[in-house]
Design the sequence.
């Protein structure tokens, strides 16, 4: 079994990296808060509250950077309540830092200046808008000598002067921050940076090039897991923010409405102590001429003016036909009192309650944008009879400004946390699911294309295990199963190859044994099967190197031909010894008997093929046994085949067999000299032999001579 121990993952490195990331984020938050507090305490306009964010984002990545930025502003809001509204700006700086380092880098001064200008301009623009329209930016600008001087000298509005001033401050602030961050980055040991980088992953860290490869590989996928995850995360985050915001707004609206209602009741209850019920008839009859009317009206107006929740307030006696307004505290005093109030159609259903002097619940009318609630308070005389009702209207129009302010501020605050939650979810999804599964899928896909060679299988095991996926969940279980399956496949293929090699050796041994049985009957074919097999190998490999018959010659064909070559004369097993070993010239009848060894050999091989269920190497053995005496011009035997109709393996064997016959001694002739034998072979090209086989044979004469010297001592 191959040794894979050197690539077993070490999970401790992930844990160490994660701890470094946590410590880095805590350090970044501490630096941001302390510097911001120090600058604020000294009354300096620079905050320097982004140094930690930039360093953490540059070293630890996107999520740690955003986490540092958002929590820095959140903690600093304990000292400066407005800081929490700028969380999303710090989150933006973290995002931009990661992007800038990836696309540009922070290695040169001009890049640092470019970074400071870009971040300072964007953050300054957003900050100035928030300060001007949400906080008391106008008052701040008016109290700033720098802003007023700038507006006066440039002849521009106070807002633009304030905007330019904030932009300049932010560029300088971010410039100082980025240079401080660059210095800190330059002194952090590389080993620490590597450990922090390791903590960002649940597998062997991927560099930008590897991430790009995975992205390109995934382009063929119709539905990307990463896109689906991003959609889910974004939708969940948006729903969470919307629901949270809506609940907050609803609670605020409900609380404000109830608070206004209570204020109105309190104002009407206080008014009851001022109005003399016994004078109501006089007030209705005489109006302002009645004794005490004007004094009472003045006191009631003061109550209304001191109760900001009330939009309108008046006192009325409800009668069957109409209402009579006694005091109207909303006009300029020019209206004639008393005023007749005509009832609206929807009011008649409540009129019996008013005529009976009952306590009536507040009536609401209008929609969400123009909601209004009317509060009714009965005023009774000493006998307990209701003499009139105090009516106070509270409206959402009085709280729209507060509500709008609340919505804007809540949205700005939630935006920072929305970015944080989204970044966290995306980071967790990518490192625990998307990248591990995509890496595994890419590896397995490549395995299926690269074949099943043993070296390739062993490389596959090393490659899949080098991913070191450690998510501690089902993804890791899947990864471990794939690793085990890949290893088992490699070892099983190794065992099968060993078995196949053993079987092949056994088969080759049987072939040689069968060939030896035939050769031992022939008194003058010494080492014939060894020499012809060697010549066959030279010719077939020469054909392949020259590019001849590439559609036919592959590794398996070469192996089958070389292994089967010893069986080309297997048919001689049935030729009588008297003919096979006759020292003189054969008669015509005897030659016909000799020629039958081709058909006999073919039948023997076909019987063997049917027995072993058609092994390919035996098919080439059949072709060579049957057709190695066929000639290129069609004058050979047993079937008179010609040209490329003759099986290629038989054409190769024909050259090898004739050359060995020419250079070997026989009972009926001595061995021909090498030059004469080669001349005969060359002359037979195109008539007896395949010209291409002769060509490569002649081109490889050095190897041919080695075989001759090994087996034919005369050479």
Sequence:
């Amino acid at each position: 079994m191959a040794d894979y121990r050197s690539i077993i993952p070490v999970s401790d490195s992930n844990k160490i990296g994660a701890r470094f990331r946590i410590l880095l984020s805590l350090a970044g938050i501490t630096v941001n808060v302390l510097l911001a507090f120090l600058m604020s305490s000294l009354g300096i306009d620079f905050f320097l509250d982004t140094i930690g964010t930039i360093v953490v984002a540059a070293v630890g990545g996107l999520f740690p950077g955003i986490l540092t930025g958002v929590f820095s502003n959140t903690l600093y809001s304990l000292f400066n309540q407005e800081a929490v509204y700028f969380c999303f700006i710090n989150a933006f700086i973290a995002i931009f830092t990661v992007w800038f380092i990836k696309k540009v880098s922070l290695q040169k001064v001009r890049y640092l200046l470019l970074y400071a200008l870009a971040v300072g301009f964007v953050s300054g623009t957003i900050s100035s808008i928030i300060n001007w329209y949400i906080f008391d930016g106008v008052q701040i600008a008016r109290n700033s000598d720098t802003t007023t001087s700038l507006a006066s000298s440039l002849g521009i509005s106070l807002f633009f002067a304030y905007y330019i001033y904030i932009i300049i401050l932010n560029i300088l602030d971010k410039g100082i921050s980025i240079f401080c961050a660059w210095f800190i980055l330059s002194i952090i040991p590389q080993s620490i940076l590597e450990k922090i980088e390791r903590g960002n992953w649940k597998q062997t860290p991927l560099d930008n090039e590897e991430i790009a490869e995975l992205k390109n590989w995934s382009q063929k996928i119709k539905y990307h897991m990463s896109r689906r995850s991003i959609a889910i995360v974004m939708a969940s985050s948006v729903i969470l923010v919307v629901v949270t915001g809506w609940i907050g707004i609803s609670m605020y609206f409900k609380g404000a409405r109830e608070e206004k209602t209570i204020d109105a009741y309190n104002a009407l209850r206080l008014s009851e102590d001022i109005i003399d019920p016994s004078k109501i008839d006089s007030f209705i009859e005489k109006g302002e001429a009645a004794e005490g009317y004007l004094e009472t009206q003045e006191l009631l107006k003061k109550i209304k003016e001191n109760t900001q929740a009330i939009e309108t307030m008046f006192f009325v006696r409800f009668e069957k036909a109409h209402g009579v307004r006694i005091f109207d505290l909303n006009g300029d005093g020019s209206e004639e009192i008393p005023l007749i109030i005509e009832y609206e159609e929807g009011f008649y259903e409540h009129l019996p309650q008013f005529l009976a002097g009952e306590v009536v619940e507040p009536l609401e009318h209008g929609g969400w944008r123009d909601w209004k609630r009317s509060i009714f308070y009965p005023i009774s005389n000493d006998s307990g009879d209701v003499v009139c009702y105090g009516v106070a209207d509270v409206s959402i129009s009085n709280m729209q400004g507060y509500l709008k302010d609340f919505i804007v501020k809540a949205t700005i605050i939630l935006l920072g946390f929305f970015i944080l939650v989204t970044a966290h979810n995306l980071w967790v999804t990518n490192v625990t699911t998307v990248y591990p599964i995509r890496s595994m899928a890419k590896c397995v896909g490549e395995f299926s294309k690269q074949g099943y060679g043993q070296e390739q299988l062993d490389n596959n095991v090393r490659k899949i295990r080098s991913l070191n996926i450690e998510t501690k969940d089902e993804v890791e279980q899947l990864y471990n199963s794939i690793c085990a399956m890949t290893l088992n496949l490699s070892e099983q293929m190794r065992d099968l190859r060993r078995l196949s090699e053993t079987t092949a050796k056994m088969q080759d041994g049987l072939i040689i044994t069968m060939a030896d049985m035939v050769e031992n009957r022939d008194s003058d074919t010494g080492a014939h099967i060894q020499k012809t097999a060697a010549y066959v190998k030279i010719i077939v490999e020469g054909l392949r190197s020259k590019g001849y018959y590439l559609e036919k010659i592959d590794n398996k064909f070469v192996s089958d031909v070389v292994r089967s070559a010893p069986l080309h004369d297997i048919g001689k097993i049935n030729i009588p010894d008297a003919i096979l070993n006759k020292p003189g010239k054969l008669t015509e009848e005897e030659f016909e008997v000799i020629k039958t060894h081709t058909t006999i050999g073919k039948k023997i091989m076909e019987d063997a093929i049917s027995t072993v269920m058609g092994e390919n190497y035996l098919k080439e053995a059949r072709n060579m046994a049957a057709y190695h005496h066929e000639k290129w011009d069609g004058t050979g035997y047993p079937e008179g085949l010609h040209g490329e109709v003759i099986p290629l393996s038989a054409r190769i064997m024909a050259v090898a067999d004739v050359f060995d016959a020419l250079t070997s001694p026989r009972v009926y002739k001595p061995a021909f000299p090498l030059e004469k034998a080669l001349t005969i072979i060359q002359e037979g090209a195109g008539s007896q032999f395949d010209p291409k086989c002769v060509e490569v044979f002649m081109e490889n004469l050095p190897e041919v001579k080695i075989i001759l010297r090994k087996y034919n001592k005369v050479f």
The CA atoms of residues 559 and 617 lie 8 Å apart.
